[in-house]
Each structure stands twice: as C-alpha cells, then as structure tokens.
Specification:
Blueprint lengths: L2 H16 L1 H15 L12 H9 L5 H9 L7 H11 L2 E8 L2 E12 L2 E4 L7 H5 L1 E5 L13 E4 L6 E4 L14 E5 L31 E5 L7 E3 L5 E5 L2 E4 L11 E4 L4 E11 L26 E8 H10 L4 H16 L29 E9 L3 H14 L3 E6 L12 E8 L3 H9 L4 E6 L3 E2 L4 E3 L7 E5 L7 H11 L15 H4 L2 H5 L11 H8 L4 E5 L18 E2 L20 H10 L17 E2 L2 E2 L3 E5 L6 E3 L1 H13 L4 E4 L7 H12 L3 E5 L17 E6 L17 E4 L3 E6 L5 E6 L2 H18 L1 H7 L4 H14 L3 E2 L2 E2 L2 H4 L6 H5 L5 H5 L16 H17 L15 H11 L3 H4 L3 H18 L3
Parallel strand pairs: 20-21, 22-26, 22-28, 23-26, 28-29, 29-30, 30-31
Antiparallel strand pairs: 1-2, 1-4, 2-3, 3-7, 4-5, 6-7, 8-9, 8-12, 10-11, 11-14, 12-13, 13-14, 15-17, 15-18, 16-17, 19-27, 24-25, 32-33, 34-35
Helix pairs in contact: 14-18, 15-18, 16-17, 24-25, 24-27
C-alpha cells in the first residue's frame, strides 16, 4: 500500500473511532433488523433525516415506511434499473507516467464532459494529462469482455481538486476529490454523449443509518463490479459517510449509491483498518500487518466516502482560472438546477426563498413558494387534505407534515407545502386559507432579524461593533471609545485610571457575579455533571478564532442551511471574520487570556480551571446576522435540538412571531428544553422567539448597571444581563485575531444560557429525582433566575415591569437548591393558551411588511417610494383598521410611517403572543 493510501486509512480510522459508539449501536440495530426485532426506520434517531427519506419515496407516509422497512427483502425494480443505468457512467481510470502504467482508480461522469474521482488518484493536472478513463470495461452476460471506450483527460480545459490531506493554510483541502474534463470523442471514435451522467444532488434524505448501499467500482483495475450484499450505511461524520463494504485499491473514486433511492450519496476514498491498542494494523487472523502484506490480508472494519453534499458545496467555493470559469459556471448551474430522475418530495434546505415582485403592478414569473399551514380541526377535513391535496391546490409540489413522527394531535395539524405559482405568496396564501381543509396558511419567507452591523461614525443598526466596512475592526478606536464613554461607570471607573485592562474588559463578569465560579457551593457537583449538559447555539455557525478554540463540541454540530457542518462561511460582505456565532459563543466558553491574542482581557462565563465546563454545540441556521432565512430552517434546528436531548438552547437573533415557530417553541418547552432568547434591539416590543411564553427573554445592561438604551423591553422580559460594550472576538485588517467592544441583546443572552447550563448541571441529581413533567425544569429555572436576580443595583430599584426581575446574579442562582415543594407550585406557561387563534392573514402580511420595512430603513440608501403598493388589498384594510387612519395617510411620509405607526402596530401583534 502506497503512502497516500496509508495516510488516508489512518485519517479514516480516526473518523471511525470518533463515532465508534454510534457505529456499535447501529451495527447492533442492524442485527436486530435482520432478526426482525426492530424496523429499519427505528435505527435512524434523527427524525428529520428519516422524514426526508420517507418523503423521497413519493408515497403516503405509512406506505413509505412499509417500503423502507421491507427493503432488506424487496427492492423496486425501477431502482435497480436506475442503478444499472448509473453504473454506465462509471469508468476505470488508468494513470500513466513516462515509464508506463502507474496505477488504477475509478471515476464517473457528473456532467456531459466532466468526471469525478479522488485527489489521491489524480492529484495534479500533470498526472491527469497522462491518464485516461475507460468506459464499458466490464463483462457481458456471457462473461465476455465488452468493447471498451478510452477517453483522454483534458486538465488544460478544466481541472479542480481538493487535496486528500486537510491543510489549515488551504481552505479548499481535505475532501479528496478531483474533477477533470474528458475528451469529447474516445480513441475508438465514440462520443462521450453515449454515456449517461450521474447528476449529483445535495438534497437530504438519500439514505438513512442502517440502510443498504451499493458501490460501483473497478477494484484493482479489474472489470467493473458492484457490491450490493449486506452493505449498510453506518453513520455520518462531518464531511464523511462511513459504511460497510468490500473494496480494494483501484476502488478509489467509486460511486456509492443509496440502494433505497438509487441516488449517489458519496465518493468512496478509503478503507478503515482494524488496529490493536498500540495503533498497529491487524491482519484478518489477528496478527500484526507486516510490510509487503497484500491488502486482502488486512482486516478492514469499514469504508469511508466523501459526502456528495460536501463536494457540491466545495465546488462552488474553489476558484478557477478565467479560461475554466465557463466550465465551472456550467457545472454549478447543472448541479444547482438538477432535478433527480427519481421523484423527490423533500424539503431542500439549500434552496433559498426566491424573491417575489413586491410591486403589484409588476409581472411575476412562475416560482416555487413555501407555506406553513394548519389543517382544520375536523377529522374529515384532515383526511381529505391527506388524500386529495394535489387536486385541491394547483401547482402543489410537496405536502409534508411538520411533525412526521409525532403522535400529538395538535402536531398532526401542521403541514409544510411547496407550490409553484406566478402569484405573490400572500395571494396564494389567501386562496389556500379559503379552502375548508385549511385553518391558517402563512408564507414561509426570509426573515429580517433585529440585528444590523454597526459602522464607524454612525449607528446603522443594532449591533454596535466599531466595525469597518470591509468586515474588520480597529482595536485602538474601540478601546479608546470605551474608556471615554465609561470613565465614570460604576463597574469600571476604579480600574480605567489604574490601567487594569484585565478588570474593566471583563466588567460583564463582575456585573453578574461570575468571576469566581470555583467558589460556588456544590462546585464539585456542578463540575462533575457539566459535561453531560447539551448546550446548543442557533446562529451563524462557528469559526476558528483563537478565543474559542476548544470551546465547541463539533461531534454534534449541524448545518440547516446547506446540510454540511456548522462552519460559518463568512460569505456576507461585512462582518466576515469572525461570525456572529463566534462572538456570542465566546461569552460562554471564551478562553482565558493566554497570550494568543494581544490586548485580550475577557473570558467565558462557564470557564473555570483554564477551560470551559460546558461546550457549545453550534447549529447553523443563518448565513448572516441580517437574514435568518426561511422559518423552516429554524423549525428544523429546534426539532433536531429536541431530538438530540438538548438541555439548553440559546438564540441571539430574532424576528416577528410566526405560527410555525410558536408551535416548535411550545414543543421545546413541553420537552423541558430551556430556550434562552435575545429580547431584541432597537424595537420597543420583545421579539420572537423571546416573546413566546415558554422561552427565557433577556434584555441588555451596560457598565453602569443600567438598561442599554436600545434594548427591547416589556412584560415578556425575564432577566437582564450585560449587553452594551461587552468585549468579544473579531479580526483586524491584517486578519489577526483581536477583541473589541460590541453591543446588543445578542451579548446578554449567552450570559443567561451559561447560567442555565451551570444551574442544570449543579441540580441535575435533584431534577432527575423530583421533576414529574419536563416543562417544570424550565419553570423552575425561571423561578430561581428571578428570585436570585439583583433587583437593587447601585442603590437603585430595578424597573421590573420593563426589564425583568433584575440583573443576572450567577453566584446567587447557583446557590439555590431544588426542593420538591416548590416544583408542585409551578404553573405551565401555556396554561389557558392552548386554543389561541392566529391573527387574520391580512394582519400577518402587514406585520411581515412593517417589520422588514423598518429593518431595511436602517440600511443607508433604502428607497421608500411606493411601499404601500406592495401590500394586498386585504393587508391595506388591516393597516387602516389597526392604525385608525386611511391607508394613504399612514404611508404619506415614510419617516412618519416608521416613527408613528410601526411600533404601535407591531407592539399589539407581538404582545398577543405572550
């Protein structure tokens, strides 16, 4: 085995070992499936992936489950035919040098004249220029060789690669793939168009844990083979898919298919060797592998492939020369617009909502629109929808339950649908609400958040970060402004004159009594249980900023934007480095000052003994702080957090309330998940999801122990924590790691999320002992949080009607003891609100319009003309009814509209949810 393959096998072993517990569980479950003890669908613990897999069957849910669970014995012939057809796209790669043949691999067509294989097969353009791919290199039904066709490779026309080894200096490395152009005509005179293309698809649901795979390959350069017997997908690990199979050298670059769907799920690249405790590879007989041993003597535990979705995302990122740009554009276009030949009925989280014509005088084009609907409470109407939705709704592309595996009656009423139409979303929603089968229908549109970037010299939004227009920050400016602004503030005034930067930069820890975590009563109990707490962040993902290194749990991260890991792509113009998720997470687990960052001076609330007691699991739900995206992303993230047994979830962004998010917030509450949310910035009302009864809403304070002037406020606020000018990580113009002062309820929220995690860790034993209903955990935390809050600060009584019970006091909170008596007196936050009615569709449209318009007004250069023309007549009537003024008067002045009307109208709507 050459050095490349040995390195790959070592890395694959590391991936395999990191998920060994999951693999062992799945293998046991597979055995139980074969014995008839459990169903295949029961292996998959991620209900969203199972739901997506069910949807791909294109039949009713129960029929799909029956088909999937029976797949070990029966397989639709159409899938076999599809696999046979796809196998024709697979060819044998022969790599040549000036001295002759040097090896073999496998590759397959992914576009009319482009093939995909491994980097370790074709590592350079020079290697590719001396190599060929041979199609039809296989035996016919009589066992005779077919006439094969050899095509030269043309790297000078197109060549793209991701090195097989991950290199911190190369952001495009680590995925072990190469794409190279192919000659249009074979050496034998046959056009490449005679061979089919395996069109790749990054939609989810192609395969689930424990389901069968098929691998099409040329092992050791032999005739084409397909492995289909007793091969199971075991588990996903970051960019990789681990499965059982028999492969040999030459199989590198093979096509891995989901046997249930006939879809390409991975690019095979390495086998996983079994090792002893000394790290030595083992033979099948248990002895140590010796130099020169053939590969078939090695005890291979499994195989690893690169996930197709990871490859597709990387393709879009890798730069190419101008001469190759045409190929890349064509390739990206093919992959982005691909529609699988198998019916696909699944939510595609990678497809953003398409813009629609806001001015009703403009024409619209046919497009896919997304809606959340709630069915009628009448059973007959529900059944009719399930059976006849396609005939009831012209252009219906997809109808799927939001809670596919739930047995709760209320959950069974929620559906998510895709509709193709040339009308605006609100017009279609009105037509859908006119059906007797549907109670409410709300378009699922991108949501502006309450956060906008701050810039030098002006306030353009709600997150003041002293950031420059290129997404970097100036530490000198930030530090200087802080000292001037807070020279007389109660929490920093004694430290600034003395130059004690380590004290005034961590004023937030002093404000919340979080400086001496080790002095808390029962610290040993807290520390012992802290690693059991699952703390999930819903934000823009994670980065590698040195302030947060080691603070993330990346074994369980999730991406609800494009299905990959939760790394922040930094793709938006400003605020590129680091992302919003990094800054907010640092307040929980940011490392102590250790010399890595010049002018450091703050640390995470949960940090003790040089490391964070609680790790943060990042869930990426947004590409930027400006838009959350469609609500389905957020819904899916919270659903996954519930299924992953999250203890605490925190969200530092927010928007206007929506039925779907209200529903999942209530579900999280009923499951005992403490969901900590930012109250909001620059709007009078507390935003969603903080406004919902079951969440913990957090307002922001400043270094003078006063409320931040831009914080949202109201009766929905539970607590206040430091949020104005908190010291957080950023980048300077040289892309060096720095720290700057930033403001927003975004920074107040993680203080309380830290407190919730530590509180639960400390009280875990008694909670498990005394809690009867999961929601009591949330209410008990809320009770302790409020009782321990600082309600008299610097001899000033706290305004509890607007800013919650007081300022967070972590030490006092952790000193609280759980007793069975206080649990009995807790009240469910949703008691008496089970039957709340949603506002009229016209009001919901108005709120969406007013919210987004108010947010956009913070963006310089925004034009306000003809804004009212964007509304349907139904919404215009609701504006007049809610404001008590003719609609033309409401919109006669944009400034007047924003200042006099928006807050009043939004306030009524927002507060109805609490």
């Amino acid at each position: 085995m050459d050095d490349k393959l040995r390195e790959l096998a070592e890395e694959s072993y590391a991936n395999y070992s990191s998920v060994l517990n999951d693999i062992d569980r799945i293998k046991t479950d597979i055995t139980h499936v074969r014995q008839g003890k459990v169903e295949l669908s029961e292996i998959q613990t991620d209900t969203e992936r199972l739901s997506n897999r069910i949807s791909r069957e294109g039949t009713a849910e129960l029929q799909a489950l029956e088909r999937i669970n029976g797949e070990a014995n029966f397989q639709d012939i159409r899938i076999i035919q599809r696999i046979v057809e796809l196998s024709r796209a697979v060819g044998r790669i022969t790599t040549n040098s000036r001295l002759g043949n040097t090896g073999h691999g496998t590759g397959f067509l992914i576009a009319p004249n482009l093939i995909l294989t491994n980097n370790h097969v074709l590592g350079t353009a020079e290697t590719a220029s001396n190599s060929t791919i041979q199609f039809n290199y296989e035996l016919d039904q009589q066992g005779n060789p077919n006439k094969s066709e050899s095509f030269n490779l043309l790297p000078e026309e197109f060549f793209m690669t991701s090195h097989y080894k991950k290199d911190a200096g190369d952001p495009y490395s680590g995925l072990d793939f190469t794409i190279v152009a192919v000659e249009k005509v074979s050496n034998e005179g046959t056009p490449i168009s005679n061979f089919p293309v395996a069109r790749l698809d990054k939609k989810l649901g192609k395969i689930i844990d424990g389901e069968n795979c098929a691998i099409v390959q040329h092992p050791k350069g032999d005739y084409k083979k397909i492995v289909m017997k007793d091969i199971r997908m075991l588990v996903l690990k970051d960019d990789f898919l681990i499965y059982e199979s028999d492969t040999l050298p030459g199989s590198s670059g093979s096509m891995v298919l989901g046997l249930g769907t006939g879809e390409v799920v991975a690019l095979h690249h390495s086998a996983v060797p079994r090792k002893n405790r000394h790290g030595q590879w083992l033979r099948k007989d248990g002895s140590v592998v010796q130099p020169g041993d053939p590969d078939n003597m090695i005890d291979w535990m499994g195989n690893e492939g690169i996930r197709i979705s990871s490859i597709l995302n990387m393709i879009a990122k890798i730069p190419v020369s101008k001469t190759m740009q045409k190929y890349k554009s064509s390739l990206v276009s093919v992959l982005d617009t691909n529609v699988s030949s198998t019916p696909v009925h699944t939510e595609n989280r990678t497809t953003p909502s398409k813009p629609y014509a806001m001015n009703r005088s403009e024409s619209t084009t046919n497009q896919t629109l997304y809606f959340e609907i709630q069915l009628s409470g009448v059973k007959e109407m529900q059944n009719d929808w399930k059976q006849n939705a396609a005939s009831l709704v012209p252009g219906l592309v997809l109808s799927e339950p939001l809670y596919p595996m739930s047995t709760e009656q209320a959950h069974r009423l929620f559906y998510y649908i895709h509709v193709q139409s040339d009308k605006t979303p609100w017009e279609v929603a009105a037509e859908l609400e006119g059906l007797p089968q549907i109670d409410t229908c709300t378009p699922d549109l991108e949501m502006s958040t309450d956060i906008k970037p701050g810039h030098y010299g002006r306030w353009s939004g709600n997150e003041s970060l002293e950031s420059l227009d290129d997404g970097t920050a100036d530490w000198d400016k930030s530090e200087g402004d802080f000292k001037i602004r807070w020279a007389n503030a109660s929490l920093v005034k004694e430290f600034i004159p003395k130059g004690q930067s380590g004290e005034y930069r961590k004023w937030n820890l002093n404000a919340t009594n979080a400086n001496n975590l080790k002095d808390v009563k029962a610290y040993d109990s807290l520390k012992a249980n802290a690693d059991k707490i699952r703390l999930i962040q819903l934000d823009t993902g994670y980065t590698d900023h040195s302030k947060v290194l080691g603070g993330y749990n990346l074994l369980h991260d999730e991406d609800f934007i494009d299905g990959e890991d939760a790394r922040d792509e930094m793709s938006m113009g400003i605020l590129k480095q680091p992302g919003h998720g990094t800054r907010t997470a640092s307040i929980i687990m940011g490392n102590r000052a250790n010399g890595r960052i010049e002018n450091d001076g703050n640390q995470g609330v949960a940090v003790a003994e040089e490391e964070s007691l609680v790790k943060v699991i990042p869930y990426r739900i947004s590409k930027s702080v400006i838009l959350i995206g469609r609500g389905r992303n957020l819904f899916n993230a919270v659903s996954q957090a519930i299924n992953a047994n999250a203890d605490v979830v925190f969200m530092c962004m927010g928007s206007y309330p929506r039925p779907m998010i209200y529903s999942i917030a209530k579900t999280a509450y009923e499951r005992g998940v403490i969901w900590v949310c930012a109250a909001g910035n620059m709007v009078e009302s507390v935003i969603a999801p903080a406004v919902y009864p079951g969440t913990i809403a957090v307002a922001a304070s400043n270094p003078n122990n006063e409320p931040w002037r831009y914080t949202s406020y109201g009766p929905a606020v539970d607590i206040t924590a430091p949020g104005e000018d908190v010291y957080v990580p950023f980048k300077n113009k040289k892309q060096e790691d720095i720290m700057v002062f930033g403001s927003g309820t975004s920074y107040a929220t993680p203080h309380v999320a830290s407190a919730a995690s530590l509180w639960k860790a400390k009280n875990l034993k008694n909670l498990n002992k005394f809690i009867e209903k999961p929601w009591q955990i949330v209410e008990l935390f809320r009770k302790h949080l409020k009782e321990s809050a600082q309600d008299v600060v610097d001899n000033r009584e706290w305004d509890q009607k607007r800013f919650g019970a007081g300022i967070l006091d972590l030490t006092a909170l952790l000193d609280k003891e759980v007793t069975p008596e206080e649990i009995k007196g807790l009240k469910n936050a949703y008691a008496g609100k089970e039957s709340r009615k949603e506002w009229d569709l016209g009001v919901r449209e108005t709120v969406h319009f007013l919210w987004n318009t108010a947010r956009r007004k913070l963006t310089p250069g925004f034009e306000s003309s003809t804004l009212q023309d964007a509304l349907t007549e139904r919404a215009r009537i609701s504006v007049a009814a809610m404001s008590g003024r003719p609609v033309n008067k409401v919109f006669e002045s944009y400034a007047q509209f924003d200042e006099d009307q928006t807050e009043k109208l939004l306030k009524v709507y927002f507060e109805s949810f609490n």
